[in-house]
Amino acid sequence: MGSTNVTVLRKPLYPIEIRPYTFPKREDTQSRRESMTITAGFRCKNGVVLCADSEITLTQGKTYEAKLFTINEEQEAYLAYAGSSFFIKELVGSLRDTSEGKTGKTLIDAIRKTYKSLHNKHYTKPPKGEKSFADILVTARHGKWISLYAGSGRHWFLVDKYQTFGVGQDQAEPIFNPLYSSDISTTETSFMAIYALRRIKGFVQGCGGPTEIRQVDDAGRFFSRYVWGKERIKRAEEDYDFFEKTMRPILLSLPDTLSTDKKKFNALVSQMVKELRRRRAGRLQIEEREFNEFIGKIFDDKDSK
After folding, report:
1. Which of 31-40, 138-147, 194-203 is predicted least confidently?
2. Domain assignments of the chain as residue spans, ordered by start
3. Average pLDDT over residues 244-257
4. Where would I find the H helices in 216-261?
5. Could you name the CATH architecture of 30-227?
6. Residue 277 burial (CB < 10 Å; 0-12/13-18/19+)?
7. Considering the chain, what is the average pLDDT of its residues?
8. In a 10 Å sphere around its CB, with 0-12 CB exposed, 13-18 middle and 19+ buried, how is residue 32 labelled?
9. Are 166 and 51 contacting, i.e. CB atoms less than 8 angstroms apart?
């Protein structure tokens, strides 16, 4: 007998906007200047990844703060934002209160209503010079799935691929678009996000500071709610710096077929491969040692109890 392939589609709790949407520009208030940032959320084949830079731009200078927050850990509801840090602090506090004890659609409804209420209070009603706002990305568990939602003013929608916010949004699109695929894992997407944000922070004014990554997998595994450590992110950024430096001779030689003969080009490729292998072997030794120390610490803690 022949086999039949059946594709099961998730029914979104809220309609998805099919056409590309451009969010309206807001006035250049103090809160707009604070929104000089880059934050993004990705739906992957096995979960969701949130990422952001950590630079906060104020009239008196720069500071660095977290832009990823826990709303309801039991339901894996996490938030990333771009916008006013004052607005978001009030929003996060309110969301933690209103989300307590809620699950699924009830939880998302509570988050959506609270966000829109505060947006109305701090952006729609106040006079021009006192407006503040934030665009948000929120995860929440629905049975076996982690869903990703976006809120921007009056707009609220399910993110089925990825969504970016902040001053780096336009620059992020040509970087994320060729790299992103819904078929890659949350771990692969996290590394992709580190690479992309590293490039954005390098040339977009107002984007900077350490990168934050939160990985939330559909399956309830050991690393299901994984927050990437600063040291690991820093190492990945250093590896990408090394990779681009090592690739430079190939980039210059590949199209130069007249003056770079086959023997010379093959030698450049061999040298690049040798350096990358050496680099990766060194990283593997470090991370294997740290992983074994981490596992050992877990068992030592259990034994001590």
Report:
1. 31-40
2. 30-227, 230-298
3. 93
4. 230-253
5. 4-Layer Sandwich (3.60)
6. exposed
7. 84
8. middle
9. no
